């Protein structure tokens, strides 16, 4: 019995027993980071800490109590995590400097697993959270607010490069270059984030396969959202709002294939969805409302299935640049549809061509825009409806819905 | 002059046409706003009315009215009154009645359902269009001797400004597609009051689609305070110029 007790004590002291390091000054913090053992907890008291380039090389739990401020005074970065199982929470990261050589960040995670960054605030940071070659990380409930300068001198809110299975939940990102930036990030989940007023894209990803984006809001970003060179993406229940400007898109899809875009709301964007080189996408139950152009399908898109969407109050529902397309439009609701439904099955009896002659004209001569909504333009569209000659022959909805498709209500929570 | 304006207005109200016109406009505007869930679409439908119906009614009614009160004008000319007083009281009387008809029929519902900047632009644009076509009708009336010819001239001007002009602009744009036509199209639109009013309203409504490459030029011009000011001055010129030339002719005309 006594042997067993001693053995247990031995095990406890060696393995499971973790030590708490209360920290009140910068020196104490540096000492704690240096001397602590694996799985220790560092408790940082409220205060203002002028810190620079703190490396974390072992699994630690670092907790800021009453939101202490870590200020890098624009001289460098703050936390550099180089170990698995690190948790950082409750801090306010301030003033991370900007360089063109290194991407300085509030929290930088390098080649680590299971790192958690939550309930922090990042103010004036070049990069907010920077993940590189790290897997299974969680970035949750952070407020990341930058002061945008120019594209070259502003970093991303949450930046991830070559990661796998990371979760990004409930963050608020404002005033960065890209709100959320992904490159070579796979199997990840982005949920409930609000990305707004970023000077380039609210969300930007490339080569990031098998990712899921749900319940996010992308609002008033310089150029909307851009996603490129990716397959098997799921985008559901997102809200793309007021991405306004000469080259702004609700969402720009370039070379995206085998993906689902379902139940999103596109409201007041210059172009709701811009598709270039996209294949085998499924777009359903989306609402396009008050956009300049609802959906722009370039001629190099094929086999896309666009059905049960609602197009309402857009200036142009669909625009395209070619004459032949191999995409399928079915059962969408178009508020400009003027057909009838004799057998009352809810589907219009005559097909609907959503590309108007006028939008084809503008494609060739943007100057003709001055005739928008003039009698001449209306007349041309009417003639074209009767005898189609210029508009794409096979871009048509064979069974347009007479009434808006029943789409479950949007419920955005951030 | 006030007295003569009063008589002109009385005369117009008595013939009930303007009343009917007001009611029709009121009915149309209210139904547009009621049946369209989105006030944006209501405004767009109203814009179509303003661009087609209102110019037509204004120009024809004014011409007919001018010739119907020809005897009254002759009578007034026999009185110690200047030609200027006679002409402008006729013009202002018509402007007042048709303007009121528009403001009650379209302005009131618009401002009630959508009292924003775009509603205001629509109403002020429409009002200036009404006045423009009254002015054009007066010019058409004084340069011709008989009613049918005057209506013909007025209708031709309406047809030109509403339909032909845009077609011609489109033709020019198609043929000159290889040249930078952004600035030119800006000038084209300034030369037609209908285009001017339409684009002013569109800048408040459809801004997003217009923001392409050409759109940028327009956006810069029509959305700046300076641009809006210039457009309204141009619209006013479209009222003043025909009235002025009409007056020049009328003051020397053998009635």
UniProtKB/TrEMBL annotation, chain A:
<dbReference type="Pfam" id="PF05048">
    <property type="entry name" value="NosD"/>
</dbReference>
<dbReference type="Pfam" id="PF13229">
    <property type="entry name" value="Beta_helix"/>
</dbReference>
<keyword id="KW-0833">Ubl conjugation pathway</keyword>
<protein>
    <submittedName>
        <fullName>Nitrous oxide reductase family maturation protein NosD</fullName>
    </submittedName>
</protein>
<dbReference type="InterPro" id="IPR051550">
    <property type="entry name" value="SCF-Subunits/Alg-Epimerases"/>
</dbReference>
<dbReference type="InterPro" id="IPR026464">
    <property type="entry name" value="NosD_copper_fam"/>
</dbReference>
<dbReference type="InterPro" id="IPR007742">
    <property type="entry name" value="NosD_dom"/>
</dbReference>
<feature type="domain" description="Carbohydrate-binding/sugar hydrolysis">
    <location>
        <begin position="44"/>
        <end position="183"/>
    </location>
</feature>
<dbReference type="InterPro" id="IPR012334">
    <property type="entry name" value="Pectin_lyas_fold"/>
</dbReference>
<feature type="signal peptide">
    <location>
        <begin position="1"/>
        <end position="18"/>
    </location>
</feature>
<dbReference type="InterPro" id="IPR006626">
    <property type="entry name" value="PbH1"/>
</dbReference>
<dbReference type="InterPro" id="IPR039448">
    <property type="entry name" value="Beta_helix"/>
</dbReference>
<dbReference type="InterPro" id="IPR006633">
    <property type="entry name" value="Carb-bd_sugar_hydrolysis-dom"/>
</dbReference>
<keyword id="KW-0677">Repeat</keyword>
<comment type="pathway">
    <text>Protein modification; protein ubiquitination.</text>
</comment>
<keyword id="KW-0732">Signal</keyword>
<dbReference type="InterPro" id="IPR022441">
    <property type="entry name" value="Para_beta_helix_rpt-2"/>
</dbReference>
<dbReference type="InterPro" id="IPR011050">
    <property type="entry name" value="Pectin_lyase_fold/virulence"/>
</dbReference>
Automatic annotation (TrEMBL), chain B:
<feature type="transmembrane region" description="Helical">
    <location>
        <begin position="196"/>
        <end position="222"/>
    </location>
</feature>
<feature type="transmembrane region" description="Helical">
    <location>
        <begin position="47"/>
        <end position="67"/>
    </location>
</feature>
<keyword id="KW-0812">Transmembrane</keyword>
<dbReference type="Pfam" id="PF12679">
    <property type="entry name" value="ABC2_membrane_2"/>
</dbReference>
<dbReference type="GO" id="GO:0005886">
    <property type="term" value="C:plasma membrane"/>
</dbReference>
<keyword id="KW-0472">Membrane</keyword>
<feature type="transmembrane region" description="Helical">
    <location>
        <begin position="17"/>
        <end position="35"/>
    </location>
</feature>
<feature type="transmembrane region" description="Helical">
    <location>
        <begin position="228"/>
        <end position="250"/>
    </location>
</feature>
<feature type="transmembrane region" description="Helical">
    <location>
        <begin position="150"/>
        <end position="175"/>
    </location>
</feature>
<feature type="transmembrane region" description="Helical">
    <location>
        <begin position="87"/>
        <end position="108"/>
    </location>
</feature>
<dbReference type="GO" id="GO:0140359">
    <property type="term" value="F:ABC-type transporter activity"/>
</dbReference>
<protein>
    <submittedName>
        <fullName>ABC transporter permease</fullName>
    </submittedName>
</protein>
<keyword id="KW-1133">Transmembrane helix</keyword>
<feature type="transmembrane region" description="Helical">
    <location>
        <begin position="120"/>
        <end position="144"/>
    </location>
</feature>
């Amino acid at each position: 019995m006594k042997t067993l007790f001693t053995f247990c004590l031995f095990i406890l002291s060696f393995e499971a027993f973790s030590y708490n390091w209360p920290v009140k000054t910068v020196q104490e913090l540096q000492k704690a980071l240096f001397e602590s053992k694996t799985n220790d907890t560092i408790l940082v008291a409220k205060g203002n800490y002028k810190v620079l380039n703190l490396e974390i090389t072992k699994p630690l739990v670092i907790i800021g109590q009453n939101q202490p401020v870590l200020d890098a005074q624009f001289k460098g970065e703050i936390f550099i995590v180089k170990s698995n199982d690190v948790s950082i929470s409750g801090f306010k990261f301030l003033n991370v400097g900007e360089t063109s050589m290194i991407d300085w960040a509030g929290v930088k995670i390098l080649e680590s697993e299971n790192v958690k960054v939550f309930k922090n605030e990042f103010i004036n940071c070049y990069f907010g959270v920077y993940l590189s070659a790290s897997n299974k990380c969680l970035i949750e409930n952070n407020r990341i607010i930058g002061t945008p300068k120019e594209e070259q001198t502003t970093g991303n809110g949450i930046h991830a490069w070559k990661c796998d299975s990371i979760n990004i939940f409930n963050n608020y990102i404002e005033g960065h270059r890209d709100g959320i930036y992904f490159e070579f990030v796979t199997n990840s989940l982005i949920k409930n984030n609000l990305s707004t007023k970023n000077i380039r894209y609210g969300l930007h990803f490339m080569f990031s396969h098998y990712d899921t984006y749900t319940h996010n809001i992308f609002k008033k970003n310089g150029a909307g959202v851009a996603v490129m060179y990716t397959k098997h993406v799921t985008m559901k229940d997102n809200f793309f709002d007021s991405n306004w400007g000469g080259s702004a898109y609700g969402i720009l899809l370039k070379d995206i294939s085998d993906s689902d875009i379902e139940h999103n709301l596109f409201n007041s964007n210059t172009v709701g969805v811009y598709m270039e080189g996209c294949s085998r996408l499924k777009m359903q139950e989306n609402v396009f409302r008050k956009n300049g152009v609802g959906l722009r399908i370039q001629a190099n898109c094929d086999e896309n299935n666009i059905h049960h969407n609602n197009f309402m109050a857009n200036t142009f529902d669909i625009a395209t640049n070619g004459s032949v397309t191999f995409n399928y439009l079915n059962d969408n609701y178009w508020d400009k549809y003027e057909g009838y439904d004799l057998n009352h099955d809810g589907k219009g009896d005559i097909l609907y061509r959503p590309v108007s002659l006028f939008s084809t004209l503008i494609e060739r001569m943007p100057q003709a825009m001055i005739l928008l909504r003039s009698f001449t333009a209306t007349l041309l569209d009417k003639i074209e409806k009767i005898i189609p000659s210029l508009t794409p022959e096979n871009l048509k909805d064979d069974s347009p819905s007479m009434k808006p498709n029943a789409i479950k209500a949007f419920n955005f929570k951030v | 002059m006030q007295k003569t304006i009063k008589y002109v207005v009385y005369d117009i109200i008595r013939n009930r046409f303007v009343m009917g016109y007001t009611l029709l406009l009121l009915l149309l505007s209210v139904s547009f706003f009621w049946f369209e869930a989105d006030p944006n679409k209501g405004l767009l439908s109203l814009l179509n009315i303003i661009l087609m119906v209102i110019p037509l009614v204004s120009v024809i009614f004014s011409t007919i009215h001018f010739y119907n009160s020809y005897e009254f004008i002759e009578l007034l000319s026999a009185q110690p009154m200047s030609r200027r007083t006679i002409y402008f009281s006729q013009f202002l009387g018509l402007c007042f009645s048709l303007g009121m008809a528009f403001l009650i029929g379209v302005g009131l519902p618009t401002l009630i359902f959508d009292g924003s900047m775009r509603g205001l632009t629509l109403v002020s644009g429409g009002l200036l269009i009404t006045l423009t076509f009254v002015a054009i009708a007066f010019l058409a009336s004084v340069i011709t001797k008989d009613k049918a010819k005057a209506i013909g001239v007025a209708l031709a001007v309406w047809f030109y400004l509403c339909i032909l002009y845009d077609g011609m602009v489109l033709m020019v744009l198609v043929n000159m597609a290889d040249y930078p036509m952004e600035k030119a199209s800006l000038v084209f639109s300034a030369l037609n009051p209908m285009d001017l009013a339409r684009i002013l309203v569109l800048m408040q409504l459809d801004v997003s689609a217009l923001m392409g490459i050409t759109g940028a030029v327009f956006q810069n011009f029509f959305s700046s305070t300076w641009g809006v000011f210039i457009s309204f001055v141009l619209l006013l010129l479209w009222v003043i110029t025909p009235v002025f030339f009409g007056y020049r002719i009328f003051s020397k005309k053998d009635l």
